[in-house]
Amino acid sequence: MHDESDKYLLGIAAFGIGAFLGAGVALLLAPKSGAETRNFIRGSIGRAKDEMHDRTCQAKATLDAAVERGKQAYDSSKSMGREALETGKEAMRGVQDKVRHM
């Protein structure tokens, strides 16, 4: 579970760093006017924000699915434990009945 979440977080961080570095390099190399540069920055930040939102949603969905699988496994184990306990109780009652009739 943690490995998938760690991969998503690493991906989000790498994307954010890459977006900001790319924007910085573009500012240094592109001979654009101030208005064009501001529009470019706004667009880059908007795209980065959208990408981070999408990745966060994916990470949340993955985490929610893992939590649900964990709950199902717990409920299944709990049910099997109860069944084993009842089987043991019945076996013990049978032994006690045999002992009493001796």
Order of helices and strands: HH
Q: Structural class, judged by helices and strands?
A: mainly alpha
Assembly of the depicted chains: single chain
Name the helicity range. Answer: over 70%
Note the beta-strand portion: under 5%
Number of DSSP-assigned strands: 0
Shape, principal axes of CA atoms? rod-shaped
Counting H and I runs of at least 4 residues, what is the number of helices? 2
Give the end-to-end Cα distance, rounded to a whole number of Å: 56 Å
Q: What is the count of distinct domains?
A: 1
- Give unreliable regions as ranges: none
Mean pLDDT: 83
Radius of gyration from the alpha-carbon trace, in angstroms? 30 Å
The biggest sheet, with number of strands, parallel, antiparallel or mixed sense and barrel status, is:
none
Write the layout of secondary structure elements.
Elements: H1 2-29, H2 34-100
Helix pairs in contact: 1-2
